[in-house]
Amino acid sequence: MSQHLLSIRDLDADTLKRLVADGQAFAKQGPTHRQDLLQGQTIAMLFYEPSTRTRCSFELAARRLGADVLNLDMQSSSSRKGETVADTVATLAAMGVRLFVMRHEERAAIDAAARALPDGCHLLNAGAGTRDHPTQILLDLLTLAREGHDIQRLDLSIIGDLRHSRVVNSWLQAIEHLGCHRLRLGAPGVFRPETVPPEATLSDTLADSIQGAQVIMALRIQQERLTKGTTGENELFHEHWGLNEARIAEWAPQAQIMHPGPMNRGVEIDSALADGPRSLILKQVENGVPARMAALAWLFSGDKQR
Amino acid sequence: MSQHLLSIRDLDADTLKRLVADGQAFAKQGPTHRQDLLQGQTIAMLFYEPSTRTRCSFELAARRLGADVLNLDMQSSSSRKGETVADTVATLAAMGVRLFVMRHEERAAIDAAARALPDGCHLLNAGAGTRDHPTQILLDLLTLAREGHDIQRLDLSIIGDLRHSRVVNSWLQAIEHLGCHRLRLGAPGVFRPETVPPEATLSDTLADSIQGAQVIMALRIQQERLTKGTTGENELFHEHWGLNEARIAEWAPQAQIMHPGPMNRGVEIDSALADGPRSLILKQVENGVPARMAALAWLFSGDKQR
Amino acid sequence: MSQHLLSIRDLDADTLKRLVADGQAFAKQGPTHRQDLLQGQTIAMLFYEPSTRTRCSFELAARRLGADVLNLDMQSSSSRKGETVADTVATLAAMGVRLFVMRHEERAAIDAAARALPDGCHLLNAGAGTRDHPTQILLDLLTLAREGHDIQRLDLSIIGDLRHSRVVNSWLQAIEHLGCHRLRLGAPGVFRPETVPPEATLSDTLADSIQGAQVIMALRIQQERLTKGTTGENELFHEHWGLNEARIAEWAPQAQIMHPGPMNRGVEIDSALADGPRSLILKQVENGVPARMAALAWLFSGDKQR
Predict the structure, then answer these.
(1) Residue B102: CA atoms inside 13 Å, Cβ hemisphere, count?
(2) Chain B residues with CB inside 8 Å of A44's CB?
(3) Spatial CA neighbour of C136 closest among C145, C127, C149, C123
(4) Which ipTM score applies to this complex?
(5) Where in this chain does the record put each Aspartate/ornithine carbamoyltransferase Asp/Orn-binding domain (chains A, B, C) (predicted)?
(6) In B, which residues are within 8 Å of A94 by CB distance?
(7) Do B60 and A87 touch (CB under 8 A)?
């Protein structure tokens, strides 16, 4: 059996904590340090949806571990000649690729890829539609840990487009394992989630959602996932839910701000807040590389031999 | 004079056998082993036609030999600013690139590139329209050798789209050099080749084409090369010529199955057969990397100094 | 403060001379020699305008210095999700990228990127619209030096599309610093520059522009920058200003020919001249790699620690 990372559910609480600890060790080494942990390995990047940011973060993580990177242009349909996802990954596995970092709008395609891989090959889900984005949560946990926060004592608010966000879905899975002192979700109208888990409460005003919070995570308004007929929602969202310094100062004066990026500046968050002293946003980006190093190294850690 | 690999005809029988032997040695080393044979060299990938599969195979081969890889996006016409193929390769050669792996729909473009290169630079044809694909034959020969087959004693059938296939064209050139105990070609209607060489016979039913064969090579129906007005050919082909376990069990019960990929599952080959125990298809993919390592290393082997 | 290279104006005469000397040393090492000067560094290639040639030259330079290269596809708007240039570079800097090689049609975008970078990060302008292309001038200076020319004693003519050329603009800045014995500019009609600096004279016939010149630099007719309604200009340009052996032999029999590439053969220059013994064009390409190595290494040279 091969280890995959398709969802935060693939990780128990101990493994989550180990990955955060490993990420802290990798973060201390700095960006120009090179390991040979994965030397000789080739990591294939299969991004069926565009993501410069996430692909670069994985590519840098792979190189810092000593691995080679194979970039495939999966968005260009001409590259595929009608080949299935399963045939694509099985073919690359036959060529000697042992780790696949894959983003796809459908979780089912990622599951099909995992099933098609032979023993000794590993798949990491780098974002699946609205369902999962496990390494985003690893980097958020690493960021909170490096800021001195203990998630079990944390007063956390997640606000924004909760319905279309794989980030919130993966966060809720992490909190199932790890617990969280207080978790509020906040979203209006079309952005409200279909269900709310017992660990969280759902608020329908910004004030109720963030009052007294220690950390506020703003989510991206996924404009590319909104169906037609919902234009105008962004303006309304900005008016009533957009984060700015005045609102934070009034309702959550101690709060730090997180955002998984890329931001819609002026929609879910104001620039002065995003670039100001409360913001952990660039620290999240920075922690993405060591968090992904921890995930990539962990996937290989169970192999008897490489 | 620089050595190029534009066609199987560039290789005599001894060189073909040497490349297969070199491929066997590279295959034994496994995918995470790294050589420094081509250290400091940069290999440019010039794919004017898309091919994720072949490009990745060459990229992995180059890296296992210690070379750097330079990927050029030659399909995007905006990248070219009207520059000729000859100017493109002469420019890269001036920058220090010594080996070019090139795919183009016209063999004439590949010949023009070879003529434009200065001494000490090498060109490898990674697929030219319907004419040549020499490294595909090297990997097929390596696969047959690793399965214990001796090509001179082999009963081989090649069936499918013989008219538009550079694979069959290159295979016939190899057999001119190496001989083959029995070679049958089989294809219906629009897929029949324009000429049949003396080494082969052409059959017009599947049964006649494969009866008693040891190895059956199914070719891809090149849908992208078919002219309009031939839709319906695929359905007819599948009905009368599609390979499946029942047909193989009846007519060639000892046969192993090969396919250069990517497959049209359900057209020229059924999935159960492609993924079953007779299939050498993933072994062909696996052998592509060491076969290409052998070809790349051989191109440099005549240089006095690097 | 971080060192950037946005324009030739960022370099004083001593630094220009040092970079040419460094380029000569790197050129002597040859293309398969590898340094570890920038080992562990990652250089991001941000080409908002396509340029296979310049990107490859920088990629080869980076690898010869021991750096890793991160290629971003900035032309595909889907990759950007509306993110600003400033957010893109700040994000990559947070991931640990310390050097950015950027091409953009607007110089303002390059300035915005430089402002968004934190301390310790460097930006190199690899071509900004019609304004700047500093490393092209470095490679031209290196080429002249390797041919034994002293710029202060040189009789140089630059002819062609002077209005839309960032090359001539950057060259004029270099000559402000370095001086030049005689500098003539030549261009007809729509290609004439808006202003002529005191160091140069502007001629309106080819004969006047090149008579007795030691080096003639032909510029590319920037077809992609011409506005509609100027077709026909190319034919007229070729008739009266196109360089060929007969014209050079008559008016400047000692002259060597340069061109920044890619050439429009048969428009601004004839093939026999471009490929003949007077041509320094492939030497310019060759010198592009060591000249860019010198620039990349220099950007890091002021850092206290890496």
Answers:
(1) 29
(2) 56
(3) C127
(4) 0.94
(5) 154-299
(6) 282-283, 285-286
(7) no
